[in-house]
Design goal:
Structural class: mainly alpha
CATH topology: Arp2/3 complex 21 kDa subunit ARPC3
Number of domains: 1
Strand content: under 5%
CATH class: Mainly Alpha
Distance between the termini: 23 Å
Oligomer: single chain
Length: 175
C-alpha cells in the first residue's frame, strides 16, 4: 500500500497551497484492507521514506523540508486515518457499505483535522502570516469536500471488491 500511496501522489490537481491527489483514497483503502496496525504502518513507512529524501510526496517532493510545507499535516493525518479506518472495521461484525463508509468518513476526518491544525500552524507560526480559521477552512477544507466525497465512494467500492476475494482483518484479543 505504501507504493500505491506514492504512485497516487503523482496524480495532482493543483489548487492553492495544498494539491488534490488520490492519496487519501489509497490511505483509506489501506486501513480497511490491511487493518489499523498494518495500514498505519504502511503510511508511516511512506512518511519515513519521504523524510529521508526519496521523492515520494505529492508531485515527487521529498526530504525533511516537507515539515515546513503546508501539506505536512495532511501527511501526518494519513497515519491516523489508516489506523482509525482499520480499527473501526476490525471491531465491526459486518462489513456493510454503511460500516465501511462510516469508517472511511472517520478516517477522512482525521486527515482533515491534522491537515487543518498544521495549516493553521504553518500560516500563523512558520510563515508568520496571521490567518483566521475561516481562511484556513477556505484554503484547506472547503475546496476538497466534493473531491473527497468522490474518493470515499471509490474507496468503499474498491474495499468491497477486495473483501469479496480476501478475508478482512479482525481485531485480535487483548489489543
Amino acid at each position: 500500500m505504501t507504493a500505491l500511496t506514492v504512485i497516487s501522489g503523482y496524480i495532482i490537481l493543483p489548487i492553492g497551497p495544498v494539491p488534490i491527489t488520490m492519496q487519501t483514497c489509497i490511505v483509506l483503502i489501506s486501513g480497511a484492507v490491511l487493518g489499523g496496525r498494518w495500514g498505519a504502518l504502511s503510511q508511516l513507512v511512506y512518511l519515513g521514506m519521504g523524510l529521508m529524501g526519496l521523492p515520494v510526496f505529492a508531485g515527487g517532493r521529498g526530504g525533511p523540508a516537507i515539515v515546513l510545507s503546508p501539506t505536512f499535516g495532511y501527511i501526518i493525518g494519513f497515519i491516523f486515518a489508516a489506523l482509525i479506518t482499520g480499527r473501526y472495521l476490525e471491531r465491526c461484525s459486518d462489513r456493510s457499505v454503511r460500516r465501511i463508509t462510516t469508517a472511511m468518513l472517520l478516517g477522512q476526518v482525521a486527515i482533515w483535522s491534522c491537515g487543518l491544525l498544521y495549516l493553521t500552524l504553518y500560516f500563523n507560526i512558520i510563515i508568520d502570516k496571521s490567518t483566521s480559521w475561516y481562511s484556513i477552512l477556505t484554503i484547506g477544507w472547503l475546496p476538497f469536500l466534493p473531491f473527497d466525497a468522490v474518493k470515499i465512494a471509490l474507496a468503499v467500492s474498491v474495499t468491497l471488491s477486495v473483501y469479496r476475494y480476501f478475508r478482512p482483518p479482525r481485531s485480535e484479543p487483548n489489543q
